[in-house]
Amino acid sequence: MKAARWGWRILAALYATTFLVTLFLAYTGNLPPQFSQIPYYDKIGHVVLYGVAAYLGHRVLGYRRVNLLTIAVPLFPLLFAIGTVTEELLQTFSPNRTLDAIDLIASFCGITLGYWLSERGR
């Protein structure tokens, strides 16, 4: 395997760790309070966090696609979108999180942007 491919995998693993730590901090109500000083930080965070994840995931999986009926759908963005909906629904069980349709839309915008940037840089 090429060294560049390993580099992308290592970067993706580091980012996945950062993403999961951020989720953990959000679920436990321990996000830094300075974030709230940034207008719409939550929505911006969804776009950026999910966009970077989609970009890296799509690259690491080699731009793989899966056929759904007659449409070739990018594999990582599809799986990540399913995980995003699941995670958003699970927020109803957390005292520190709330189910928010705008968050879901911002997450999907990030996934779409990350996918688009990954395809563009192909």
TrEMBL record:
**Protein name per the record:** VanZ family protein
Where does the sequence pass through the membrane?
Answer: 44-61, 68-86, 98-117
Q: Which UniProt keywords apply?
A: Membrane, Transmembrane, Transmembrane helix
